[in-house]
Amino acid sequence: MELNKLIAQDLLKIKAVFFRPDEPFIWASGIKSPVYCDNRLTLTSPEVRNDVENGLVTLIKENYPEVEVLMGTSTAGIAHAAICGHIMGLPMGYVRSGNKDHGRQNQIEGRLEPGQKVVVVEDLISTGGSVIEVVNVLREAGADVLGVVSIFTYGMQKGLTRLAEANVKNVSLSNFDTIAEVAAEQSYIKPEDIARLIAFRNNPSDESWIGGTK
User: Fold this and answer.
1) Is residue 90's pLDDT more than 50?
2) Fewest C-beta in 10 Å: which of 72, 88, 89, 111?
3) CA distance between the termini of the chain
């Protein structure tokens, strides 16, 4: 089975990604969404966790063979960076959302030497803002950031544009379109819901998809 479909099945099975097009979730921003995503749940399922970590290692080896250090995003990417670092025999660290207010006041935790080739490990990418901040912190510290690996990406245009403008490459284990397709195949949603989900993905601020076929 293709890796992106395997991960899609895994995420749906443990409800790390959960579709509810007829009863939308409300994000902190106020946007109504047909999808709920919590990839932290992958850590609670040994079988799924194994698929995810081995999948991330495969992506890293295929896309960033020169990597020297893995850096997780805080907080969701830390565990995945640690597990992948263990499997690959690589050092890892993580980047805080801000500087500590005590001790050495680090924002980057772990040893990082200028010029080292870094891959950022993230769990989810939507608009791309948080992971780009992490990349910028690492670049300012002198790291050569090769790119990002993530478990899941929405593929929203805003995120794609931001990543391109920041010259940040991302490769994900699975994506919104694949998970919507697998969800329909396995009867988590109705086949006609796929178009509604894609409409949301293409323009989250347009709520016309909510009144779709029920």
Assistant:
1) yes
2) 89
3) 31
Whole-structure pTM over 0.90, yes or no? yes
Residue with tokens 């896309």: 63
| Cα angle for residues 187, 190, 194 (degrees, 5° grid) | 115
- Rounded to whole angstroms, how far apart are CA atoms 198 and 9? 18
Beta carbons within 8 Å of 9's beta carbon, 6+ residues apart: 182, 186
Span 48-60, mean pLDDT? 98
| Residues pairing with 69 in the sheet | 118
Handedness of CA 153, 74, 127, 213 (dihedral sign): positive
Strands 92-95 and 69-73: parallel
Q: What are phi and psi of 6, to 5 degrees?
A: -60, -45
Burial of 23 (0-12, 13-18, 19+ CB in 10 A): exposed
User: Which residue in 156, 166, 214, 164 sits closest to 27, CA to CA?
Assistant: 156
Confidence of residue 98 (pLDDT cuts 50, 70, 90): low
